[in-house]
Amino acid sequence: MPTQLRLLRRGYRAAAAAAAVAASKAGARRKVLDGTPAALGFRMPAEWEPHDQCWIGWPDAQGFWRDAAAPAQKAFANVVDAISRFEPVTVCCNATQYARVVHLMEHKSNVRVVEMSACLVWLRDLGPSVRILLSVLWRKSLYSLELALLTHYLFYHQFVVREGDTRLRREIAGVDWQYNAYGGYNGLFGPEDHQLNRRKGHEEHITEDNLVARKVLELERIPRFETNFVLEGGSIHVDGEGTCITTEQCLCHGNRNPHMSKDEIENQLKTHLGVSKVIWLPKGLYGDEMISGHVDNICCFTGPSTVLLSWIDDKSDPQYEHSAAAFDVLSNTTDAKGRKLDIIKIHVPGPLYMTEEVAQPFLGSVALGQQRLAGSYVNFYIANGGVVAPAFGDKWDEEARKILEKVFPKHEVVMVEGGREIVLGGGNIHCATQQQPAVCPHPSDADTMEGQG
Amino acid sequence: MPTQLRLLRRGYRAAAAAAAVAASKAGARRKVLDGTPAALGFRMPAEWEPHDQCWIGWPDAQGFWRDAAAPAQKAFANVVDAISRFEPVTVCCNATQYARVVHLMEHKSNVRVVEMSACLVWLRDLGPSVRILLSVLWRKSLYSLELALLTHYLFYHQFVVREGDTRLRREIAGVDWQYNAYGGYNGLFGPEDHQLNRRKGHEEHITEDNLVARKVLELERIPRFETNFVLEGGSIHVDGEGTCITTEQCLCHGNRNPHMSKDEIENQLKTHLGVSKVIWLPKGLYGDEMISGHVDNICCFTGPSTVLLSWIDDKSDPQYEHSAAAFDVLSNTTDAKGRKLDIIKIHVPGPLYMTEEVAQPFLGSVALGQQRLAGSYVNFYIANGGVVAPAFGDKWDEEARKILEKVFPKHEVVMVEGGREIVLGGGNIHCATQQQPAVCPHPSDADTMEGQG
After folding, report:
1. Is B431 considered catalytic here?
2. Which of B116, B223, B452 is opposite residue A115, by nearest beta carbon?
3. Three-point CA angle B101, A159, A436, nearest 5°
4. What is the overall mean pLDDT for chain A?
5. Is A31's CB within 8 Å of B207's CB?
6. Of chain A's two ends, which shows fewer C-beta atoms within 10 Å, N or C?
7. Single pTM value for the model
8. Is the four-CA dihedral B196, B198, B199, B204 of positive or negative sign?
9. pLDDT (tens digit, 9 = 90+) per residue, B102-126?
10. Which of B246, B220, B204 is nearest to B212 (CA)?
């Protein structure tokens, strides 16, 4: 199908989605849904299921990006450009960046720019406290954490869908996770200091760090599920058919939900994502410790019963043990439907390290030149008909492309230059984006609508 | 028709509108339209034509509202409540107000809250310059200007529509007026100081004070027409059938478009609003001088060939001459279709004056107790099936309601308490709102869509 036609169909699809949402709103008249997603028949769809649009954040000089964030912005613009070839994109930026970004996107009619500064406001609020910690922490650890906060900032909500009576539309809702800054100070200090956990309950006033999810859902007039469960979207992957994959390093760390056992946490995943099986990898990527090893840097589903695993051949590299342990788990389990998993290895770039050149602007004389970067080709975004993955200007880029093209034979694989610049922020393309599932996922229905227009 | 059913239909209508927009976008792929609205067949619809939604601003303590804007916010909440009974409402607020407003609107599923702080940012930028002016101006004049800036802040764009090939949908676009703060400093100094006019051309970088229009249009993925013409939406009214009504006091003041003759200004209105006849009232409401007398405080269309005129019986009141002059013009002209106008008088409230109590918090010892307030019952909003008008707690309130009920026999008239609090800000309900025309304006088509769902 030609890209233009596909885009056209996506347009109708999005329109139908909006129609369904509006109709649903007019009928239900509720912003907050009672009950849990699973109990009401909602499930989190797989990333390869059709989207209505993609949400993405925007780095700025207020975050810890080098050179006033200019190189990072260039990389993000490349990502936006790539994704918008396949589906509509909404770029969320700080008020002070709005004029610049909207001008930059002037001729990209598939991209809209919205002001959304909550997380940045929150970062400002955090600033002073972080500086207090400086004296008791490794500075390079602190650095990683701060960067990660910005790059991941749209990831504390999750869309879920429920099939409707007809194929024409399904319902969409959002799960408004609680967010405590990747474990917050407790994450840095270690799991023992539970009293430092900053998770906030519903009984407290709405806090800035939880507002992005609400802003997204308000904008789209999408109802939401409230929860006390602390989670970032980057710490889970699903196959849309009942299976979730995550890491013990992150979810069982004790800095997100310290009062819960592993079973209770697994229950929360089942309740909120509509899954029946959780696969626990021991650890995330080496170098990703400050956010406790999100799964989206080490492993993801690429289709039913198929996973892609970050790999390294060098057994002396610290990453090897992480990947091998994950491989062990994956090869000895089944998915929710009882199928064995097809495990495809993809070599990590580099290994990549911070350089003195890019480290200097942030922390002056502190030597960060040898800090390992959490670079990974697994941190890509699956768009409608496309896969947008980071290129690191590295010798492994080309092999990564070949693997992705083989794994996604029906998708166009776009490797975006600038992955190295983005990983300086602690995450990558998948971390910075959030897919919004299509409410009318079937092209044939979209065609029907087209005929009626 | 029961309200719920009407709401449901509006829901489908909004959905269909979104569908049309998405389809239009997918096809046209343009954010900025070439040519002028009139040349492309667009026209500004009358306010009583069906809407998809209503946009409204939100006062906060950063503006010049008394008591940290709490009384004004209560009044605005009442307005939102009233309008949302008839159509969806989008409340635009400063980032710092977001948590509060979204919480306030938690159970109003017909209301969404979006962050939109550009104008407030712009006010901050203006602040220091305004203070410089303090020594050469009457303080009470300055006060009025600053208040007006906030209350009117969504009014520098205008929606226009173009009929489609079918009754099912029409196209929508926005006219992105240039905005120079109600004549800016030139407006205060008088029309002679043309060199102080701060109008900005397209060749210059996008300025903060022009960003609200773009933010609204970006959010809705609605394309826009660019123009160098300076205008605020409150200074015009149209009947949707070719006639525009405005004031010479405002548009010919020389502080908006000083390089243009009256004929050229009239031409701009015809070009951008798709009208063929402009009716020029000499002046706006007495007390509204600081924004040069917007027409929406003194006169508005209530239907084809029918206008409502702010009136006062007391010939010794300075308002009398304004109203009588307008009456003269209106009774000696015809609309675009050659029809004589039916002129209905509606008595102004009060007259209302500032009190020392409400003036003190702003300017300390400056005596503003006798400043005339630009109170007017004409400054109402026509929603889908409803008319939302300000009540001032005044002896004229009840008569105003009776007149509005007579003029709008098919609408439910809601008089909102707190009009006096809002007028302290220099405008009222009409000034603070902006209707977004329905793209699918025909209920029968909405029913058709419903049948297909």
Report:
1. yes
2. B116
3. 95
4. 79
5. no
6. N
7. 0.84
8. positive
9. 999 999 999 999 998 754 322 222 2
10. B220
